[in-house]
Amino acid sequence: MKDLRTNFLDHVKNSLNGKPLFLRILFWDGHEYAFNQDIRVTMHLHSAKLISRILMGSALDVLGEGYVEGDIGIEGRYQDILAVAEQLGDSFPAKKSKGGIFRKHHAAHSKAKDAEAIRYHYDVSNDFYRLWLDRNMVYSCAYFKTGEEDIHTAQGQKLDHICRKLHLQPGEKLLDIGCGWGGLLSWAARNYGILGVGVTLSEQQYAYAKERMEREGLADRVEIRLQDYRDIPEREHFDKVSSVGMFEHVGRTMLPEYFGAIQRVLKEGGWTLNHGITASQQDDEDGHHSGSDFMDKYVFPDGEIPHLWRVVRDMAGQHLEVLDVENLRAHYAQTLIHWVRRLEEHKAETLAMIGEKHYRIWAIYMASCAYGFWRNWLALHQVLAVKQTRSELTPRPWERRYQYQDDSFRLAEPQWDDL
């Protein structure tokens, strides 16, 4: 075992290229080694098999799984732990790629398989999510104006930002695909006077959102359905369509069908906003990356993230003309930091609710995602588009000021008489 341990330590030291590694390792047999006098992270390796697996590659997957299963103990701040994990991942470059925390494969996204994946992630329990989400129960990137807002304020700002971008008007019919616990539809109905339909594949989200609309007196204006987006009847036509934090579950090969379904139920000249995680680099879409197995096994079965170019191309292919693109990468890093802190604040309740293993999964998953957004391994884009199937110019704003101010705006209507 000594040779195995020495081989591992030498491999890591030789790969550091003079960079400090603020790590101390306590081995299964009582030996310990500190890479630096400044120790910020202490790692307890309880088995020699872990080193054998790390030496074979996929270090981040091995470390993540070992931590969740209790084979590795870790002490330190999350930001230091993740920085150390990145360096250990860099020690094995054959398996290292910036940005790969979701599995990069093309899963068979059948309706049954998608429903199963959604149930796995979202049907933990509504009480669990209520512990660390904001009061509106919004499980997607918040919107910060100063970076100092609490999560409740920032999520309210995000909901309003989406409503403003879509320029929602009283009486308009809004479809929210992947409506979660109904936060956006509730906000839009109460503050913008819309009529809404929300669809979700999560039975627990469906039950909560449906009860919520009744509790808030919105049941006659907002309908919640347990329904796949592919099953929305063609006869239904909406003025606006939103999809927030949902298309990561769609699959890249399914994006044309996904945007086609949106285009099919959207009236001519109607607007749609797609809000979702995207790959930061084009080459991050393909191939297997460190951390992918961990995410696919423990967090997001069959999750895939496309690059922005693919999103814009596939929207255009379905006659959805892009009007506006906004990158909220910094906002998602900040959102995840809030979530991790709130999860830690409710650790005792969480442990009683879901147990130690699942607490570790959620804590390391959200902390690693925050780190990934901060390091530009991931991005978050809001893409606003208009349905344009005819040659005539459909109305759209001349400028973006309407998204941030209450005053009315002019629509683009070329004055042909001036030509």
From TrEMBL:
DUF7884 domain: residues covered: 23-96
InterPro entries, A to Z: CFA/CMAS, CMAS, DUF7884, SAM-dependent_MTases_sf
Keyword Signal: no
Active site: C369
GO molecular function: methyltransferase activity
Pfam families (UniProt xref): CMAS (PF02353), DUF7884 (PF25371)
BP-aspect Gene Ontology terms: lipid biosynthetic process; methylation
Top-level taxonomic group: Bacteria
Enzyme Commission identifier(s): 2.1.1.-
Keywords: Lipid metabolism, Methyltransferase, S-adenosyl-L-methionine, Transferase
Enzyme class: transferase
Family named by the database record: Belongs to the CFA/CMAS family.
Alphabetical list of PANTHER family matching this protein: CYCLOPROPANE-FATTY-ACYL-PHOSPHOLIPID SYNTHASE (PTHR43667:SF1)
Protein name (record): Fatty acid methyltransferase
